[in-house]
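Final report, Chapter 2: Outcomes

The project's central promise was a pipeline that accepts a single protein chain and returns its three-dimensional structure in a standardized token representation, suitable for archiving and comparison. That pipeline is now operational. To close this chapter, we reproduce one record exactly as it appears in the project archive, with the input sequence first and the structure output second.
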Amino acid sequence: MDNHVTITDIRMPFLSMVFFMVKWAIASIPAFFILWIIGSVLFALLGHLFTPQPF
């Protein structure tokens, strides 16, 4: 028994949508920094592992 739901419209006042998008943009800034730190650590570890070592 599969019940499929299709959303065709979202009723949201314009100012509420603007505030939502501003909050979304502000919340993305710390998320970007967290992903940047994780990526930097990952690339540093991979660079350290795959760099040829002198004998």
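Archive annotation: The chain is about 65% helix and 0% strand.
This record, like all others produced under the grant, will remain available to the consortium after the project formally closes.
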